[in-house]
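Slide 14.
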Amino acid sequence: MTQDIVPRVDMAKVLLIDDDTKVLDFISRFLREAGHQVETFDEGNQALKRLKEDCFDLIISDVDLRDLPGMDLLKRIKEIDPPIPVILVSASDDLRKRDQALTLGAFDYLLKPFELDFLLGIVQKACPNETLKEKLRK
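Slide 15: predicted structure.
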C-alpha cells in the first residue's frame, strides 16, 4: 500500500494549544490520524506569534494555560483572525466561563474528559469546507 502524499481536501490546518504535553501529544496524534495538519504549542503566547505568521482553519486550546488565561487568549485570537473558529477545552465545569467564551466568539466549549470522536465531530462542524475558507482568506 502506498502513502497518499496529496493533502486531503477535507483536511483542516489546526493550531492546538495545551500546557499538558501528554494531552497535547494525544490529541494531535488523533487529529493527524484523522487527516488534519496540526501544529502544537504548550504556551498561548507562542501560539499567538505563530497565528500572526500563518493562516489556520481552527484553533483548539485549553482554557487554563500557565502563561495566558483562556479568555485573554480568545480575545487576542479574535483580534488577529476574527472569523477563525476556536474550540476551548476545560476541566472546570464553570458555566460562567463557558458563557463568557461563547459570548467572546468561541465556536464551542468542551469539558474534559471528552471522547475523541466527539471532538472530531466538532472539528468537522467548525471546518466544513477548508478550500472555501482558503479562497476567502486570500
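Speaker note: The domain at 13-132 is CATH 3.40.50.2300 (Rossmann fold).
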